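S.,

As promised, the guanosine-5'-monophosphate run. Input:
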Amino acid sequence: MFGLFACATPALAHQALLSLQHRAQEGIALATAHTKLEFKRSCGLLSCAPKDFFTPAPHALGQVLGAHHDFYANNHLAIAFCGNLHHSTTPAKFIAKALDRAQATSLEAKLKEITPTLKGAYAFLLLTPNRLIAVRDPFGYRPLFVGALRSGFALASETYTLQALGVTDIQEIPPATLYTKTGAMLLARPTPRPCVFEAIYFSHPSSVVFGQSVYAMRTKLGQALAQEHPLQADFVVPIPNSGTLAALAYAKELGLDFAPLVSLNPYVGRSFIESTQESRQAKARQKFSLVQEDLKGKDIILIDDSLVRGTTSKVVVQMLKEAGAGRVYLLLSAAPILSPCLWGIDIPAKNELLSAQGGEAAYIGADSVGFLSLNALKAAINAPFCQDCLIPKNKDSHV
Ligand code: 5GP
Ligand code: MG
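Predicted complex:
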């Protein structure tokens, strides 16, 4: 999500949405505010020209729609929401209705009144004809950044978006903070538990999270993987695009041959967000192909960022084996995912998580499967983070 206050233009709003597209792909929502509020929604990826989607106005609020990316607007207020409220499947609307019922008089005071009732993970932006306000939960699960743009300010889920807009003085909005043009207000006692998946997979490589560039962090994860699993093979092959940086660093660390032999067709779209295992598999098969078919007898170290259901790696390992590859060793530049996420990442129930079931290599058809240890992940991140998905839980719920 992004917000622009006293600096919006059609071109900037368009650029902001494009720079967030990797975070959700099911739709686009945009509100603009001048003396009144206008809003639009469309399905799928952003495909129109800036002027077709955006009515010129000084303020704008936009969201890419999908799992844990919500939006609500009426004639006087729009809310873009990232995260997961445990008591609502329409969190942006839930917040708007809670504000309607709040007793306090000012918008800030209403927000202060209602935030203790929000259970779960949330970062949201709220636009009215003359205000843009940001709120981040006490744990800081979902990322949120702010910076200066022209005579106004801009807010976004990733620094990449702000960088792309030419924003200066980029700062993280701290957990438990309500941010407005005039300053920041602490809403509760902050207990930071930001989501580690932003570093592992979700954020754009140009972004900064945990005070480090994502590019540098994924490089560190690849180096750590080389230290923990120093294997020998003919080629180190990334599963694109999510495994590329770690694979490159892994190969460099061990002096092995980095070979991007798997190609990804970006027009197929995300296989992960399909609703059935069959359609996820079919889409993964459509999405990946080998750029070199004759791999007879070649041993391969295949690297991806993470293993969830094992769909992606099973499909790619099968392709490599069909092309005659010898041994295929799968490595993941993250610790095993053992529990579902309740804090805004699409990590499914435990019975769908391959590492929670065990037998990863047999299911995938790889000769071995290795993960980065949680300790190595902690060393690379070097800041507190939420580990709920990386720790085994007896039940699906850990609220
Ligand atoms: P799997 O195929 O094992 O179910 O999922 C792992 C693959 O999906 C990895 O390549 C990873 O980059 C990607 N992935 C992991 N988490 C997410 C997510 O929340 N959303 C999407 N779209 N992809 C994900
Ligand atoms: Mg991937």
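The two ends are 26 Å apart (CA to CA). The chain has 13 helices and 21 strands.

- D.
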